[in-house]
Known about the structure:
Number of helices: 7
Strand content: 15-25%
Structural class: alpha+beta
Oligomer: single chain
Low-confidence stretches: 257-265
Largest sheet: 6 strands, mixed
Mean pLDDT: 93
Radius of gyration: 21 Å
Distance between the termini: 38 Å
Amino acid sequence: MITNLTERPNIVSRAEWLAARKELLLKEKQLTRQRDEINRQRRALPWVKVEKNYIFDGPNGQQSLADLFEDRSQLIVSHFMLGPGWNEGCVGCSFRSDHVDGAVTHLKHHDVSLVTVSRAPLAEIEAFKKRMGWHFRWLSSYSSDFNYDYQVSFAKKEAATGKVYYNYDHRDFVSEELSGLSVFYKDESGDVFHTYSTYGRGDEMVDTTYMYLDLTPKGRNETGPHYSLGDWVRHHDRYDVAGVVDAGGRFVAAHAEDSSCKCSE
Length: 265
């Protein structure tokens, strides 16, 4: 990947460029067909019936997992890293969430409900949501095991071992909250099934900004220290504030008095 303009490709004639572009097009078409096949295999995965009665706190009161579908048969849950007492959400999850409101209307009209869930209490969620100007449904799982059962929150006892089970393997502990997407289906009898979850880089497929950047000469241009979006993405109201994103995805202002994150807590 080209990471800066000092690594410029050769400058060629239009005819030479066209030949190179058509060669790449063949590979792009192969990738498209491969993605179609992976999507088919994803849809063909077996399902697991959800037996536990998860309850969430939302602006309209308590709701079950089945309630979150509303009148649709499919549900996507965005696992957002916002733990109790954090004051603001993970930078990467916020980046992903900046792309949600525009998609929700289209999903609603294609039998899909999308909600965001965090373990922070509802009042803390509502405060950050208001700051960010978002309108999508965002609920708290603070009173249930939902985040723990879907491997995006980790109890202190587990974290103390230095290893947590995340993205289908035991990995070094980074944060008590991590991100992902989970998908559910509700049948005509009201039974709910877990059909899919993805974590880590698996959820970047919904980050539209990345898809645009992948078209450009510099690409994602993530050159360190994290070699990820932590190198450059900020809360959309924080691009003019000096600071860094820590390994756990939380913003740390350059001056402690400027930070509302309190990342050392």
